[in-house]
Amino acid sequence: MTHRIDAVLQHRLCAGCGACAYIAGDHGVTMTDVPGVGKRPVGVAALPLFVKDQIADVCPGSEVRAPSWDGHEPDRDEVVTGPTKAIWEGWASDDEIRWAGSSGGVVTALATYALEHLGMALVVHTGMDPDEPWRNKTIISHDRQGLITHSSSRYTTSSPVEALRLVEESDRPCVFIGKPCDVAAVARLRRTRPRLDRNLGLVLSFFCAGTPASDGSLALSRELGVPRPTRLRYRGRGWPGDFRTTDGEREATISYDESWGRLAQKPRQLRCQLCPDGLGELADVTGGDAWHRRQEGTDGISLILARTDRGKQIVEAAIRDGYLEATDSDARRVVAAQGLVQRRRVVGTRLLALRTLFLPTTRFPGFRLRAAAAQVGIRRHIKEFAGTIRRTLRHGRT
Questions:
Q1: How many alpha carbons lie under 13 Å from residue 345 in its C-beta half-sphere?
Q2: 21 with 30: CB under 8 angstroms?
Q3: Distance CA 8, CA 60 (A)
Q4: What phi, psi does 92 have (nearest 5°)?
Q5: What does DSSP say about strands 38-42 and 30-34: parallel, antiparallel, or unpaired?
Q6: Which residues contact 393 (CB under 8 A, 6 or more apart)?
């Protein structure tokens, strides 16, 4: 039988998180950016069976287990936002961080706070690849300036989990910033790696609607008259900011709404289309756009979701120490702000369609997909089911 991790790769369930390279780096596994696909591991097929088992146990393309509700019965809004310890709306108190960030600079401000006030050693996160700026690169930052330089959203695939060895070997706790699927891998990894668990001082995530392949960004730059950019920025420098591409001689910009609308039409990873967790439920803290307040201006406002007691304590301390400005919010306002919660309501139907075709799928125990599905009508589910079947038969799964 096909090993589970081989099936993940063969059937496009890979999220490109980098866990394969972290676990099997000593066996030669590395991450590469595959055109039209995304970040993918190289060298997995030849791995010993026991190493494949280790990877499959943490792979977010295989399974993501939702955090516990600890006996709380969620209401309609909480079903699609997931468990939280507290929710705020706010922004970075530092004007430069707020201006540079995607939506108020909250994630950057919290990482800066962890370095400057909590004594953490480094931050693993994602930034622009200086050699090919339409691609992403895993970045290690040690100070505020490094975080600001690589702040703001990067709308293409990334693999920050590949760098967890630096966290594991650090002499002090560290910060990890990643997509919801990345932090899902981190949550599984820390269960069996005590030193990694101790050194993950703060795990941060951000709202994610899925990541187009990097050649989508390059194609957009070419359409704007910059065929080989030397710098490419998706947003930020105001809220939400502009898509900006330059080669040093020519520069082109279009609005965030137009650029994301065009990038969103590019193929995204199948795993993204099947993801119920766009809000980073397995992080300590998740931040994202408070779109319901967009009319208030261009300085940036974030939703801040503390998922763990540790996350809640750190956010409260960052507010108290002047790194964040925030007011209390709730799940209802998160749903009002974020249309991406709609995906939770239809993912179960997409998964059912794939299983009807006898295809493997990612497992999502604990995400209450049936309760979420009950929030939309039967016509929507019929449309999702038929559309998934049609696209799968047309394009295949390999």
A1: 18
A2: yes
A3: 9
A4: -70, 135
A5: antiparallel
A6: 357
Domain ranges of the chain: 76-339
Residue 198: partners with Cβ closer than 8 Å, 6 or more residues away? 173
The 10s digit of each residue's pLDDT in 255-314 is 999 999 999 888 788 999 999 999 999 999 999 999 999 999 999 999 999 999 999 999
CA distance 31 to 162: 8
CA dihedral 278, 282, 287, 288 (to 10 degrees): 0
Are the beta carbons of 62 and 13 closer than 8 angstroms? Answer: yes
Lowest-pLDDT choice from 260-274, 292-306, 323-337, 361-375: 260-274
Characterize 201-210 residue by residue with b for buried, 16 or more Cβ atoms within 10 angstroms of its Cβ, and e for exposed: bbbbbbbbbb
Average pLDDT for 347-358: 97
Of 319, 327, 328, 289, the C-alpha closest to 93 is 319
How confident is the model at residue 265, as a pLDDT? Answer: 85
Parallel, antiparallel, or unpaired for β 86-92 and 302-306? Answer: antiparallel
Using the predicted structure, report yes or no on whether residue 218 has a pLDDT greater than 50.
Answer: yes
The 8-class DSSP code of residue 363 comes to: B
Residue type at position 219 = A
What is the per-residue pLDDT across 5-35, written as a single tens digit (0 to 9) for each?
A: 999 999 999 999 999 999 999 999 999 999 8
Q: 257, 242 in Cβ contact below 8 A?
A: no
Task: Give me the amino acid identity at 50.
Answer: F
Question: What is residue 396's predicted lDDT score, i.e. its pLDDT?
Answer: 64
Round to whole Å and give the CA distance between 88 and 298.
19
